[in-house]
Design a protein that fits this description.
Pfam families: HTH_20. One of its GO terms (molecular function) is DNA-binding transcription factor activity. By secondary structure, the chain is α+β, with helices and mostly antiparallel strands. Helices cover 56% and strands 12% of the residues. The longest helix has 15 residues. The chain is elongated and about 70 Å long.
Length: 115
């Protein structure tokens, strides 16, 4: 599972690939349509699509002379489960944390006291 997570998070680390996934949320798209909004070559977009395909985030299908891209949302399941495991921790109460930091700074003589 760790290798799968690494591959998914590596694919998601790039803003272009995240934008492509957002576009594919709407509908399946031809590779040329995926490339249109980006200021890069079709070859560069194809590399991004290969990374997303290798991570299992999209599927590419040839229909005649056109290659179509389709989102595979189930591929995000393991990443989602992993991230949800951090939800078991309670959120930090920011006001209390701010008071703590203020008191620490006062003890160090590094700031004025505030109410």
């Amino acid at each position: 599972m760790s290798a799968d997570l690494d591959t998914v998070f590596s694919a998601l680390a790039d803003p272009t690939r995240r934008a492509i996934l957002s576009m594919l949320l709407e509908d399946d798209m031809a590779v040329s349509d995926v490339a249109d909004p980006f200021d890069m070559s079709l070859a560069a977009i194809s590399k991004h699509l290969r990374v997303l395909t290798a991570a299992g985030l999209i599927e590419q299908e040839r229909r005649g002379r056109v290659t179509w891209c389709k989102l595979q949302p189930d591929a995000l399941r393991s990443a989602s489960i992993w991230m949800q495991s951090f939800g078991q921790f309670e959120a930090v109460e920011l006001d209390a944390f701010e008071r703590f930091l203020r008191s620490e700074l006062l003890e160090l003589g590094e700031g004025p006291a505030r109410p």
